[in-house]
Input
Amino acid sequence: MPRWNLERKLVVGILALFLVPTVAAGGILLVLYRRGLLADPSALIVTVLVGFSTMMAYLGVMAHSIGRSLVRTLQEIQRGTELMATVHPDYRHQVRTGDEMESVAEEINRMADRVRDARVGLEAEVARATRDLHVERSKLSAILEDLDEGVVVAGLDGRITLANRAAVELLGAGGGLLSRPLFEFVDREKLTHFGDRLRAAPSTVERFTLHPAGGVVLQAGMTCFVDGGAQTTGFILALRDVSRPARQDEAQLRLLADAARELRGSLSSIRSLSESLLGDAATLDTSVRPMVAAIYAEAVRLSGLAVEMEGVGRLGPGRAPLHFEEIAVADLVAMSLRRLRTEGGDPSAVAPAEFPADLPSLKGEVSALSAALTFLLQVVLERRDLGGAAWLKPARRGGVLQIEAGASGSATVGDLEVCLDSPISLGPAGRFTVREIVHRHAGEVWAYAATGRLGFHLTLPGRDGLAGQAPSAESPPAMARLVGAGLISGFGAGERVPARPPLYDFSLLDQMERHLRPADRERLLEESTFLVFDTETTGLRPDQDDRIVSLAGVRMRGGVVKRTETFDALVQPGRSVPASSVRFHGITDAMLAGAPPMDVVLPAFLRFAEGAALVGHEVWFDLDFLAREAERLGLPPLGVTHAVLDTRLLSAAVHGGTVEHTLDAAAERLGVVIEARHSALGDALATAEVFARLLPLLRKRGIATVGQAVDAARAARGRGPGSSGPAGVRP
Amino acid sequence: MGKPRVLIVEDEPNIVLSLEILLQRAGYETAFSADGEAALELIRRTRPDVVLLDIMLPKLNGYEVCRVVKSDPTLSSIPVVMLTAKGQEVEILKGLELGASAYIAKPFGNAEVLEAVRAALEPRA
Output
């Protein structure tokens, strides 16, 4: 199709615009002139005026029409292009002007085609890649699921991002492993220790053992993975149950021992009877005598064998420490000092240890040994003279490693020996005394108290000194499992709640602040893990024998409430629940009949709370109850071991003292619907949602770290209607 | 003055037989019991001069029988010789701690048994 370009069109148009009226006016004037109609001057003027007006009108109409057709086309192109670029990628221009504008429109159409093709290609590529990824992932999970070995992938913070079924079973993780901290199941110090070593040499594999609950011993292989910038971003643990073969060997050995015992019994009869026959010369026929003598000789020979068999049984591999790992003494000492710091001790009070070159290396359970050493250090540090020296001295004595943990000070041997028999916690593995731990390693430990010095000597066989020295293969006791948990829901939200007595003081807040570690203080709220919790109780006076009947919590991370990560337990309070409280929370004595006592629930709760800051609404009330329970069980108060935040105080910090800060008021203000008010889990979930919505508001006010939140809460103490100074009453 | 009476407490019939033959020929009178409870009953009733006591017994094991005998003032003077099929130091020690006067490890020779019984009877002779 022949095209006119826009310029030619314009020239022709403008020429036509002027030529047509000029020619028309000229023709009309000529005709009028020939007819003599222009002789009259007035007629001439009228004619010229009429002609000029007509021409102007014509010019105006034509210019408008040309311009409009141009602009319309441009508008059409603009509108169409916008559609293509936004909501309607398949739209195409239909411009048929035959000029450059049509070309532009067609060019845009072609460009849109190319973009569409590229997009379709990209989508196909993405779909293919996704499919491939899916296939690979399915293969990987099929392989992982089939593996007898447990595989766990976790970030540097210990949070699990991938785990196979075997890992769930090996770690005894009933509720699954995903996004839970690995430290909930295994020794944090040990993982940190080997993680640090790996980061220094990322391409290696660290091998060690782990001791989760239930007495299982896991051999772990740990590798780390790095991102593009060679930064370590997480690690992979391969886990294998090494106690199973040991247990099987043990069963075989037991069989062997039983067989040997049987054999010895039978041999006794044969030997004794044949010997009696031989001794009875009068009745024994001379032709039979050699046969009886042969029987007797065989019985004696077999007796020797039976005794030897028992010797083998005593040294058998089932008793050998199969799962023990090799460790350098320096690493053991470093780990003990780190554990000392974690447990609130001061490692700088211990003089730096010297490590003679001839120290034997060790085989053992590093967690247990370092915990034992840490405990011994704590004992000597507690008893040393004010400002006196303390030391940890490893030395070689023959094939044996001896470590002295001592200090300058005075004590009695009896006092120190008692400490060797007091149980210490090995995390999920259970509680053991130092003496038990040392005996498990075929070692010995004893206390000394000389003039001005006190301490312990701990001897352990060197790496090669263990053969045949059977440490007992006893299993640590399984941790008690939590039973009888259940959510009490649907309790009427409109119930009038009795006021709490004014025992809501803040001494626990002061205590928490005193113990808040700098690292916890500096942690960003958005990067912290929180455990938001609540309790229901038999009453309001923990100082007057009121106890907890229900304890529940939910975890929060990255400002998000993890509704699948909850803890919810009814607790046997050891007393009856008064009717006034039953009306309040709906928990009756009958419901608590099969519930576990706090001795079981609190340790489980503490495991669930490990590594998290605690959050609650008027949390100091709940904490007062928990602190008393912890004291009863010989555990440290939660306010000492965890950072604690109170949503009531934070609400006051954000919204000031002119509005209510009850849980109901704060929830309503922030648009949180409370699902099961006055059940521990329901209130904990509501508090968590309130806290999640307070976080961005706190950030706007420059409160970004845990420490800043604690300070803001302290400043907000006593704010809010109805509060009377520090002893604000929670309705 | 009759023959010394030996009570054999053992659940293995052939061992009982061999001990009976051995001891009877050596001039002892024997009785036997195959479980711990019956043995205690028999000891109280017949007051034997020596008890040959196996450790692994049905109902009540040899340690318990020994403990009961030695803690009962009317019976404690009866010497007890333990018969052990394990021969491990801890067991022997435990038996002696409980008041047994000797132990015989299976498989035993006749001379050992006769010597142990004779030695156990000696203070009474």
Notes: The longest strand of chain A covers residues 560-570. Residues 147-242 of chain A form a domain with the Beta-Lactamase fold (CATH 3.30.450.20). Confidence is low (pLDDT under 50) at residues 312-322, 464-504, 720-731 of chain A.
